[in-house]
Amino acid sequence: MEIRQLTDAAEKQAVTRLILEALPEWFGIPEAREEYIRESAGRIFFCAYDRNRPVGFLYLKETGNATVELYVMGVRKEYHRRGIGRQLFRQARDAAAGAGYAFMQVKTVQMGKYEEYDRTNRFYLALGFREFEVFPTLWDEGNPCQVYVMSLE
């Protein structure tokens, strides 16, 4: 497995589309998926490759002068539980710290709503994120937004 930081906007968008379309359980709302694809072009972006085939990615979005958000992450299902997300995260965390950010945040659906997102929550907690706040209606009542944070210092 190889992790690369991508800089070409079109390549970032192509990878984002390829991976997110393979993950309808998490990215099944077309408008949201297209927004993630559009947003990817100008972001700090990492991609995991298996024999030059993209199998996962993540990108970061600045949310404040000291804070960056792990804005979106996806790993093809057949590659889950192989440490790819953890490798992508480590590269992104190091890049964010190197760029001078003090904090990283991530948003997901609150634990206890959906099994797919409960696995996601457990993954973020295992990476070292800590619960920060829940916004019950940020997205909608059926998807309460859990915010996790971590210090990069």
From TrEMBL:
Enumerate the InterPro entries for this protein: Acyl_CoA_acyltransferase, GNAT_dom
User: Gene3D superfamilies, per this entry?
Assistant: 3.40.630.30
Query: A Pfam family in this protein?
Result: Acetyltransf_7
What Gene Ontology molecular function terms does this protein carry? acyltransferase activity, transferring groups other than amino-acyl groups
Q: Where is the N-acetyltransferase domain?
A: 1-153
Supply the name of the protein: GNAT family N-acetyltransferase
Q: What's the source species for this entry?
A: Brotocaccenecus cirricatena
